[in-house]
Structure formats: structure tokens, C-alpha cells
Amino acid sequence: MIRVLIVDDHPMFRDGLRQLLSDGVEFQVVGEAGNGAEALAVLKSAAADVVVMDLHMPRMDGVTAIERIRAGFPEVQVLVLSTYDTDGDVVPAMAAGAIGYLLKDVSREELREGVRAAARGETVLSRTAAGRLVGHVREPELLKPREHELLRLVASGATNKEAAAALFVSEATVKAYLLRIYSRLGARDRASAVAEGYRRGLLG
């Protein structure tokens, strides 16, 4: 039986997934969480084979959660189930260690098969997610996942202190990330880094 942890900040969507993946024969939902921080807490007490996770969540986003799950629970596979399929979503999630990326408009059976494949350690990608990754491979990687996430926070107006809290790092680390971002994008300050990020399609 495949043990599943559902992570999404919308309770009604979690309810639907729980009904779909609680047949008691092939799938068992061992827990639910509304964000990445809650998911990590659940994994400490509930063994799971696959985490079905959204990306855009409060407190701790999906990319950060994927990194921490892969570091702390390497035997657990993370399957992203998201509404978004931009480069800024797909690439960082896969780089962080997700086994697959599906969109929320998949059919019930496509999702079930995706969970099965993830449990077997097989990569699962929607057609658009696969296209994003192929396009990314053709171009040199500009920013590391954490740097990319920081750039998105800066673009949203976050201060260094707010970004540090969101990324669970120190302000000194944020400043170091920013310097690397400036260097890689050829930017001189936060505003020009954000402008360059949009120009290069890093921010959607």
C-alpha cells in the first residue's frame, strides 16, 4: 500500500484528494498539512512514501519544503500538484528534488498513476512541465533555486529581514545571495535585478 501525505493550503482541495487516495487497498492517506512547515512536522510522526504537495503556500512554500523533506526524509518522494506551470515554478521545484510535477487539471486516474510512479521512484511530468524543463536545459542556469526564490521575494517587495524569515536564513545570508544574484544577472541593485529577472523570464 502506498502511504500518502497531502500538503495544500486549501482544505476543500485536500478533502477531494483524501477521498481519491483513501481506497484502503492501494493508497492510504497518512496525514494532511496546510503548508511546508506542517508537512515536516507530520513526517516526524507519520511514515509516508509519497508527499503530494502544492507549491504556493503560506509560512513555508513548496520549494523550501521539498529541499527540507529530501534532506531530512530521503526515502520520501515529493510529487508536486500545482495550478502553475511557469519556469519559475517547475524548474526550482524539480531542482529542489521533486520526483514529479503535475497540474491540478489532471484526471483522477492520471493523478493516481502519478502517485504510483512516484512511489516507484519514476519521474512524473505533465506535458507543459516537461516542456519547461527541456527549455531550461537548453539554456544555462542563471540562478540556484534559493537565489531564484529570493529574487521572487524581492520582486514582491520583501525586505532583507522579511526574506530571511521566509527562507529561514540569516539576513547576512540574504545579503550574500543578493550579491550573487547581482553578479549573475549583471545587476547593480535590487531594482535592476528584478527588472533583469522579468526580462529574462525568471519572474512570471
From TrEMBL:
Domain HTH luxR-type, residue spans: 136-201
Keyword vocabulary terms for this entry: DNA-binding, Phosphoprotein, Transcription, Transcription regulation
Domain (Response regulatory) ranges: 3-119
Signal peptide residue numbers: none
Keyword presence, Cytoplasm: no
Modified-residue entries (4-aspartylphosphate), positions: 54
Transcription recorded as keyword: yes
Protein name listed in UniProt: Response regulator transcription factor
Species this chain originates from: Paractinoplanes ovalisporus
Lineage, top ranks: Bacteria, Bacillati, Actinomycetota, Actinomycetes, Micromonosporales
